[in-house]
Inverse folding.
């Protein structure tokens, strides 16, 4: 399980190891929600590719300030029309 201090501002990165050769040219979004919750349309945030990792910035002052002591699920959605696979949740604990 990934652990990140609640005061930290950093990229959460999820490696995506399968997909088409042009995978990192495709749009990617991420949702980070309390454990047990599934994402709804408004939960998805634009993400970026850092190498083969889908990445989104979290922490105070970002669009994803996370609460200390909670465990979250990280969701990744890659858009490759007509497909839109959703991967996750991957566990993240905020210390």
């Amino acid at each position: 399980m990934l652990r990140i201090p609640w005061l930290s501002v950093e990229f959460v990165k999820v490696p995506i190891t399968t997909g088409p050769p042009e995978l990192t040219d495709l749009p990617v979004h991420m949702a980070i929600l309390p454990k047990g919750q599934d994402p709804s349309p408004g939960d998805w945030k634009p993400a970026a590719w850092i190498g083969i990792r889908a990445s989104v910035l979290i922490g105070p002052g970002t669009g994803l300030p996370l609460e200390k002591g909670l465990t979250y699920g990280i969701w990744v959605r890659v858009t490759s029309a007509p497909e839109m696979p959703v991967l996750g949740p991957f566990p993240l604990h905020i210390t």
About this structure: The longest strand covers residues 86-94. Residues 2-94 form a domain with the Immunoglobulin-like fold (CATH 2.60.40). The mean pLDDT is 96. The chain has no helices and eight strands.
